[in-house]
């Protein structure tokens, strides 16, 4: 970390902070907890997985609709941090509220989860946009990849603590029910998230902006309309966003529904959690590796590599039957997950105008979030139609192939700074 500035480190630490939510709530413990609550309420496994997918779709739809206009407003001086703090506060408070949901109320559980998701993802939209304020174009791939690596390393700590609490409760070493042990994990998530977001909140500030105008909301809609009219001028940006729309859909769906998928295959909660912990550990060096290789071969080539790995993952999912198969799948995900996300973020930041970064990251958000509506819905619907969740995961191949093809037509850009 010595080669990075204080501001770069402060920005990267938010990956460390928010990653606890990503692994504990989005990926691992909450989905398992939700599946148990739904099962207790008499909801069939396939249906409960589908309902989780539909909930993720609803949350992402709400944020996707808000993204561009909020991003445009946030381009005005002093607004980016305010929007970041609003969504950060929503996400952390909603995560704390998960502790108080009755263990037999799966509908309320999914409702509050919706607010945690909107808060977390909304804050990340503005966090991502801050990358233009903390570093140069030449350093963006490295800084972004290192941020993701820190996230994987950092998330392992609260995850291990949470797993320890749950396992000790299951073995009756500590006087906690399995339900309360999961709730402790949600509390750990909120505390970790809040604590390590402080460097970002204190040290990172908006440097690139447009001057405020009278009637800020009306002016924002005008700027947004002008961007649509100038779409030919931004052909590279929108071609990339179209490719991103498809391939990041598959990435996000696999992340958010992996444990529900494993549960449907009959894998135990302990096996799933340990495998996911290993993913966090393995993914960290691979995220850094993707950033290093991007310097040598270019970010686009490494994005191609990540997409191809995910195509293999989707095909392999059809044959998944045992915990060994799940481990193979998990390790494949670990090699590409951080790299493809980090390089997507930094590549996009390199091709957008700095002073309008929030507006364009609003579009980045809307393309990514609308994509996240399609993927979970596709998996849920296919699983219900076929009675087999594996076919739902396999259907994501279509999205990765389309994303790969469109990315080929994105013009290569030389990074000048």
TrEMBL record:
Stored CDD domains: MFS_YxiO_like
Q: What is its main location?
A: membrane
A GO CC annotation given for this chain: plasma membrane
Is Membrane a UniProt keyword of this protein? Answer: yes
Compartments where located: Cell membrane
Task: Enumerate the spans annotated as Major facilitator superfamily (MFS) profile domain.
Answer: 236-417
Annotated TM spans? 20-38, 50-71, 83-101, 107-127, 148-169, 181-201, 237-260, 272-294, 301-320, 326-348, 360-379, 391-410
**Which superkingdom, per the lineage?**
Bacteria
Q: Does the keyword rRNA-binding apply?
A: no
| Membrane topology of the entry | Multi-pass membrane protein
The entry's keywords? Membrane, Transmembrane, Transmembrane helix, Transport
Q: Its Gene Ontology molecular function terms?
A: transmembrane transporter activity
- What PROSITE patterns has UniProt attached to this entry? MFS
Q: Which PANTHER family match?
A: AUTOPHAGY-RELATED PROTEIN 22
What is the name attached to this protein's record?
MFS transporter
């Amino acid at each position: 970390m010595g080669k990075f500035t204080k501001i770069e480190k402060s920005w990267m630490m938010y990956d460390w902070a928010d990653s606890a939510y990503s692994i504990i709530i989005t990926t691992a413990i909450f989905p398992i907890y939700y599946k148990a609550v739904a099962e207790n309420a008499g909801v069939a496994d396939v249906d409960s997985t589908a309902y989780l997918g539909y909930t993720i779709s609803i949350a992402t739809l709400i944020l996707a609709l808000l993204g561009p206009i909020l991003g445009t407003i946030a381009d005005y001086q002093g607004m980016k941090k305010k929007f970041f703090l609003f969504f950060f506060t929503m996400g952390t408070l909603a995560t704390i509220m998960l502790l108080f949901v009755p263990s037999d109320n799966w509908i309320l559980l999914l409702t509050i989860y919706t607010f945690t998701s909107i808060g977390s993802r909304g804050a990340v939209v503005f966090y991502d946009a801050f990358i233009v304020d903390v570093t140069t174009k030449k350093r963006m791939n490295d800084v972004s990849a290192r941020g993701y690596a820190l996230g994987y390393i950092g998330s392992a700590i609260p995850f291990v603590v949470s797993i320890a609490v749950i396992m000790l409760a299951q073995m009756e070493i500590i006087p906690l029910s399995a339900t309360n042990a999961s709730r402790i994990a949600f509390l750990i998530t909120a505390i970790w998230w809040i604590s390590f977001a402080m460097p970002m909140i204190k040290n990172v500030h908006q440097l690139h902006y447009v001057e405020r105008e009278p009637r800020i909301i009306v002016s924002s809609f005008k700027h947004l309309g002008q961007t649509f009219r100038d779409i030919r001028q931004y052909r590279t940006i929108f071609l990339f966003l179209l490719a991103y729309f498809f391939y990041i859909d598959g990435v996000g769906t696999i992340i958010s529904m992996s444990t529900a998928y494993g549960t449907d295959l009959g894998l135990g909660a302990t096996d799933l959690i340990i495998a996911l912990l290993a993913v966090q550990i393995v993914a960290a060096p691979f995220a850094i590796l993707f950033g290093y290789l991007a310097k040598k071969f270019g970010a686009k080539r490494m994005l191609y590599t990540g997409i191809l790995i995910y195509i293999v993952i989707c095909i392999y999912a059809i044959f998944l039957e045992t915990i060994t198969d799940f481990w193979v799948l998990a390790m494949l995900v670990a090699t590409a997950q951080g790299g493809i996300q980090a390089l997507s973020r930094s590549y996009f930041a390199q091709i957008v105008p700095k002073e309008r970064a929030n507006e364009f990251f609003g579009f980045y958000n809307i393309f990514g979030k609308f994509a996240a509506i399609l993927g979970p819905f596709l998996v849920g619907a296919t699983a219900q139609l076929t009675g087999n969740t594996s076919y739902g995961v396999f259907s994501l191949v279509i999205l990765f192939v389309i994303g790969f093809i469109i990315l080929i037509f994105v013009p290569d850009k030389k990074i000048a700074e």
